[in-house]
Design goal:
alpha/beta; 4-stranded antiparallel β-sheet; 8 helices; elongated
Length: about 230
């Protein structure tokens, strides 16, 4: 599942991204309201974690504009504003939950899971290509009748490939989404993890789903599209 973090405290945003990544989520970060709104309007996210006090455009206005455009992505507000009036205003504007700073990461993760479960009741949490099946709520993956055990990074990579099935993704795109622009990662990390995934979801199965597009990147697609 993809989560957008709109937070101008970059240390906090990166901490949240790492924490969510360890839980298998794919995250993007925006450090100002204008960029956050542009990304949120793409309607590609399962959840938005949103600070209210942002440069360029405040969080409350972002919520209003999303709801005016009928974008229903769940919004978890993070803010230092802890008065009842502020909470009511945020919820009335269209936020789905409200967490005041400082907060425990364990509580944030619990609220994220609760909001995603609620979202899952409205849309399918099952992603599938051929006999490869991913349950984005339980984080369980199957190829045919065999359950596949994946690490959090392998899961995030596979989910990104499935959600973009039949689309060629460059190594840079994959690295930015799965590793959150971590400059310390190895230059060949994407190739390494693609090999890990192939061993688990392709090597012992037919048809092969993960394709290498020479000079371009990788793509997950069914044989009918190859």
């Amino acid at each position: 599942m993809r989560i957008l973090i709109v937070e101008d405290e970059i240390d906090l945003a990166q901490t949240l991204a790492r924490c969510l990544s360890e839980e298998g989520y794919v995250t993007d970060i925006a450090d100002n309201g204008e960029e956050g709104l542009i990304l949120a309007e793409s309607d590609m996210y399962d959840l938005i974690i949103l600070d209210l006090m942002l440069p360029r455009l405040d969080g409350m206005e972002i919520i209003r504009r999303l709801r005016d455009r009928r974008i229903k992505t769940a919004v978890l507000v993070l803010t230092a504003r802890d008065t009842l009036t502020d909470k009511v205003k945020g919820l009335d504007a269209g936020a789905d939950d409200y967490l005041t700073k400082p907060f425990a990461l364990a509580e944030l993760l619990a609220r994220v899971r609760a909001l995603l479960r609620r979202e899952g009741q409205e849309k399918s949490n099952i992603l599938q290509v051929e006999d490869l099946v991913m349950d984005t709520l339980t984080h369980r993956v199957y190829r045919g009748d065999r359950e596949i055990s994946l690490t959090s990074k392998e899961y995030a990579l596979l989910e990104y490939l499935i959600r973009n099935q039949n689309r060629v993704l460059s190594r840079t795109q994959i690295a930015e989404h799965v590793w959150n622009d971590d400059l310390n990662i190895m230059s060949n990390i994407v190739d390494v993890y693609i090999r890990y995934l192939r061993r688990k979801v392709d090597d012992d199965f037919e048809p092969k789903l993960i394709c290498t597009i020479r000079g371009s990147g990788y793509c997950l697609r069914s044989p009918a599209k190859q």
